[in-house]
Structures are given as structure tokens and as C-alpha cells.
Amino acid sequence: MKIDDTDRxxxxxxxxxxxxxxxxxxxxxxxxxxxxxxxxxxLESFGVIKGYTIEVDHELLGQPIQCLIExxxxxxxxxxxxxxxxxxxxxxxxxxxxxxxxxxxxMQFATFAEAEQFIDAAIxxxxxxxxxxxxxxDFKNK
Length: 142
Fold this sequence. Notes:
Strand order of the largest sheet: 2-3-1-4
Radius of gyration: 20 Å
Helix content: 25-40%
Number of strands: 4
Distance between the termini: 32 Å
Shape: elongated
Number of helices: 5
Strand content: 15-25%
Structural class: alpha+beta
Largest sheet: 4 strands, antiparallel
């Protein structure tokens, strides 16, 4: 599939707001709603657009503490660690990464004690290094 500049504009607009109607998207990139809809369906069918997501305000959900956790699996037991993570409801993302750590997680907690409990529970599976997030730098509105 060949991606052109119009497709890139569509992707940029949908990345900014995935709830745009086809008519609003068309207005923003100067294309008719049917043409935009056809292009979006094509991007979806080729897997360029994998899905649509939401951004959750975890503070409003009672989980104001956010952190990034590097995890280095012990004894090559990746399967047990991923099963352990699958039981956690507060993982925003988990990436298998290169470098000294094996995984990078983003998690949110209601309290520091909750974060500590997770870290303690992870000890049989992985060594962790936790970085608490103070704020997010917003590049979108600059």
C-alpha cells in the first residue's frame, strides 16, 4: 500500500482526535466526506489504522500516582512474568525493550503503598526500577 500526503494528513488528524466525523475530517483536509471515508476504510483494511483509543484521566479515577517501571526478568522466566502482569488491571502499556531491562511498563496507583505492594509482588518474577511521573510535557498544543 502506498501512503500519500493526503493519507498522512488523515492520520495526523485522527491521531489528534479519533472521534472526528468523516465530514469534519474532510473539512479539515479539504476533501469530501465520502472520499475521506473511503481512504480511512482503506487505511483500516491494510492495517495502517489498527484501532481507535481513548485517553483516560487516571487522577479522576482515583489513581493519581503514575510511574514507569523497568523490569528485568529473573531466570529467563518471561512467561510467568507476563502472566503476572496480565493479572494487573492498572497497566497502561507494557513493551518488551532492548537494553539492560526486559520490559517497560506504565502503571497507575491510588497510593504509594499500592505501588510498593506491586513492586513487592513482582520480586519473584523480576527486578524492577521505578520512576514516578510528576507531569507530562504537552507537545500537541505548542
